[in-house]
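S.,

Sequence below, as promised.
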Amino acid sequence: MNELDMHIADAVLGIDTLWGGDVMNPSGMGRFIADSWFSDEPLPDSYTHPAADRLRQTGGVFGKNIDREAVDRYLHEMNLPRAIAGLRDQAVQCPSLRRSYLDGLALSLETMWDLALELLGMGDAVPYARCVEASTGKSPEPSHPEAMRDHAAELLGRAGYDQGHGILQSVDAWRRDRVTPMASVQALGAAVIARFDALSRKNLVPHLPREMADVPRANIGFLPIKDAWFSGSMNYIGRARTATGAPLYEATYEINASLQISYPEFEQLVSHEVVPGHVTTFAYLQDLYVRGQAGFEATVLTMNTRAATLFEGLANNAILIAHGVNEVKELPDEDLQIGVLLALLQDDAKNQASYMTWGEGRPQAEVASTLRREYLVTEERADKLSGAWGRHPLLGRMYLPAYRAGTEKVARLRRSYPAGRVLPAIYGCNGLVDIETIDMVLTE
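The prediction came back faster than expected:
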């Protein structure tokens, strides 16, 4: 690792540890900000120091009972602002694309640092607008679900669901008729993954460099878990190797056993989380790193960043990429179209939960009611998005807006550029990019 790589590692894993994350934990129940570590490089001091271990065990600055002694010791031993500043200083020497990406990463890390200080009572309140701009490159704004909701209502009517008592009852009935059996999620997941991998081989792979064709796009296992605070967690591991030292590109997907989801929505979930969405994206970036085509920062991908916003946007467009189309109405059957519209409405609801909670200061009950009524989410999703997610001091302010911002940007880029140009760019084949720097690649 060179000096820049060391600053990246210390800054990212330091902020992750401060918030209670553990990138080496294979489960999403133990991870937080840092999504991956597959470089085979030694872990930095910000992870291995004894003070870091105690901080992880106590949940960091957002633990149920903050261990101030553990936090104070970690802050004393690890100079995280210096690591972030070192990242910025070293990035100046990089080519413009990488420099801009690293500047965006530093901006996000600085915001997460200041949010931690706010939570500890050691710093000023961080403005909501700063949080959203750091992760998405855009100012906060409310969602506008009307067009998607009207489209869903039209399709539900054609499917025979009477909306005399309101669209929400029709959606609930539609979901009940197509419910995914969580007891069979492993077998069901394997079948849907195989289908989308075949579609990706047909409609994605031909647009990418030939070297990418043999990279495993979906080496993943589904694991149902009980009582999770999230609907599901894709955990990219990437540390297994063949006898010759080549990566196996492995991941797991933990899915909430109480999740209420229809089969068409489950199809969208698989395309989003696995292939050609997150698992495929991470595998491609690991391959690019191994072949020397991506820098160290590609191995320690981080939530609440502009890169994460791009990845969420890519994943929400993944089902369209797999089918080789640009619009929901072009998907092969109307049941699938309904499922995708409901999934996209849910991600618009994530942005709205953030905006109402942090931008307008609305109470949780009002937020939950709005998400259920206007965004057609299940009661379970309305509760979690307005509560555990929406009111989280970090995820509620920085991550929830990423879904809508990323989805709209990637959809716009796919409409504006041919597949042979835009797909290699968003998957990192022209250099690691984020939701802002993608424009540098496509307009050069």
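The mean pLDDT is 95.

Coffee later?
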